[in-house]
Write a structure and sequence with these properties.
- With 162 residues, the chain is an all-alpha fold.
- The chain has 2 domains: 72 residues, no CATH class; 56 residues, no CATH class.
- Helix content is 61%, strand content 0%.
- Helix 1 packs across helix 4 and helix 3 packs across helix 4.
Amino acid sequence: MATKKILYTITGILAAGLMMTGLATTAAYADDGQAPPARGKLLERVAQILNIDKQQVVEAFQQATAEARQIRLNNMLDKWVADGTLTQDQAAQYKAWLAAKPAGVPGPFVGQNIMDRLLENGRITQAQYDAWKTWQGWKPAFELPKPERPAAGALPRRGLPQ
């Protein structure tokens, strides 16, 4: 049991490191469990180092990515409620809508064109496509504010002295 906790901790740390290097999972790959080729070799090496199946590493990375995304979204909603941009009721509506997302379909920020391409390319089924469209129809009627972006030059550049 302790070995599994250590394994998941190491995998989580590696997943966080991958996210920070900008190798986040794309919607097209999230549904079929396939890693993009550039990341695939890295995940394969992580699996070798940990002596586990590559699919476990892929799934752990996907889980860590989804959890990080959910935390980030919850933090944004909480901030918007605190500063009066959204009401508590609006935030609750949006969270309830997100919780109702059908399994196996991309998240709320994937547009119609991407979904059409995923269906055309066989990455999702017609049933998944239809479930996504139905879910999108339940989306709360208010628009979320645009997340704040750091000003140009506000973030340190990697590899350069500060």
